[in-house]
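seq:
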Amino acid sequence: MTKRIFITGIVQGVGFRPCCKKVADEMQLSGTARNLGGNAEIVIKCDSRATEEFLCRLVSLLPKEAKFYSVDITDCKEFEGEGFSIIESDSDDRYLPEIIPDIASCDKCICELENTSNRRHLHPFISCAACGPRYSIINKLPYDRENTLMDKFSLCEKCNAEYTNPDDRRLHAQTIACKECGPRLYWRGENFTDNPFDNAVCAIKNGGVIGVKDIGGYHFVCLADSQKAIEKLRNLKLREKKPFAVMFQDLEQAKVYIQINDTEVKLLNSSARPIVLVEKEDSVFNEASMGSRFVGAMLPSNPVQYMLAKALGPLVMTSGNISGEPIITDNETMLGILGKSPYLDGVLYHDRDIITSLDDSIYYVLDGKSHIVRRGRGVAPASIPVNLGSKTVFAAGSDLKACLGFYKNGKAVLSQHFGDLEDDGSAEVYKSSAKHISKLFGFKPDLTVCDMHPAYFSSDLSKELYGKEPIKVQHHHAHIASVMAEHNLDSVLGFALDGTGYGENGEVWGGEALYCVDKNYKRIAHLKTVKMCGGDALSKNAAESLACYLVAGGVDIPEDIMNKGDAEIVSAAIKNNINCSNSSSCGRLFDAVCALLGFGNYNYFEGQCAVALENAASIAINKGAIAYPLDLEYNKDELDTVRLIKDIFKAKKDGADPYSLALGFHIALANGLVKIAKSVNYKKIALSGGTFNNRILTSLLKDRLSKLGFEVYINEKVPSGDGGIALGQLFIAGKD
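struct:
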């Protein structure tokens, strides 16, 4: 009797087939295992009872990254061979394959890396069947060495012996390498020694900033406690204010500097090795964090990072790009920067190319649950189960924090983060990645879907890529639909709060209450619509947002907010409707309150003023201050934010503590949203939009709603911000 076992799931690039052989050999069973498309096929000579035992043993032995989604067992033609072997892979497009993200170096490889008697001692590309680059180097399926960028590196005799040895943990490890067969490190910069890695260490120790080529692209690296080096880094990246992530050697080193809870520990130590936004003490890494109460903590994801952190201690490890541009992946571009910039002191690079560029993934933890801020290395392109129809759908996502997606056969596959598509380089990476993902997964979309904004690049790109007129979906509807897709919900009252989105009435939306049923929605309520001037520049100028609110409230703009001449221009522009739009944006509301309370007048990076206002509220909480009592009135279908601004203006003028006002504002906004929920009284509530990265507001709102008996859902697998829009678009367009 011979059985065919067909398994869908994460079964390639994780050492699955070697596990099959190990179990079969232990049970003295004959048969074969092979990759079939993106899945796996086992043919085994045994009866039903032995098949069941085989699977039980296999599951107990599976690598931690492996997952079964389905197991199909059928009788098949009698196997006539002897023994169990791993055979040549084949293609199969009947099922959607799973392509595993890049996997951080495993503990066994790190032990070998540090073992002076091991032939891979300090080999910067050490990996095995259970770890190493995957998505970033794969050309096509099935996941075999000849289909990856490792194909250019011929195996030496010793590596080949391990690769073909059934008892070796590098059996069929496609990224297997050693010092003899490559890849290799190279150094460009001042030569302190003959060793490329040692030169990099010396440059960083001397206060330098260097580029380091990692798995998904370059990082810029310097000492985390060097003010001089971080200033150089800011000049290099043209990033004056935005915080930088800090990499620690291991959890023990991290705990010296920051307090981390169990969920944060699990995230930091996961195979994705993401950046985790962790609360910190005021005195820790202030230059890197730029006054934020959080530090972006991370652990090494590959041998080079581990070696650098061990040699140097905590390091700033930030994406190797100039602000607003895509992460650099090729050596020529980075070496070109070295030749031109006085702020870059060297480049540590290697000769393995990168097919798919990947920024670091970012998470935070709220109420014991992890929430993703950016999908990148270690996460993309893992699929998300979604209960939709039979058609294959392409979703273009949003222009800001761009992320595209596909749906097929019950799964949504989302790309990595691309940045903002107004940058030509980011748009090109977006297009090439769409083509690459289509080829890898065999996607041929029946439908395409995009944001309804008439000027979005992503909308035009979707037509260019697939030649189909896309379905247009309202931005905030897509935000709420992304929560519905994640949590398998058919209907919700959704609160979508963010900076901007094109509304169906042509106005700027951003503070919306939407009743969503299946693929349809109705706008129930919103933040008060305010006439604002300044166009796209308004998203940066918080003082101008405040001025627009004050004009709407009939309040003269004080000179400590805006000089008399500029105030007159703003007033005249609003009066005469010059370069104005009607806006219900929650982002601009946060900007206005931040500027009013003196915590910041300008967004040097997206959301800076909102973060500053949240930090101020946090300071009030930590010092036990009483929140200033504020009320956000709900009249018909609007929350009266203009009246709220006037109340805060008066309270500040009367001498109220700005920190207490910041906390009072957060409470008032949460209470205002609760008023809407109570008036609609639909028990399932979905929260989405970039504003819900604000932990204080989100916690306040969730707590109040839960106590009133509402069920509250929020994004966890995709970002609440625009990086989750593609999933919502897929949900809306993919419904039959």
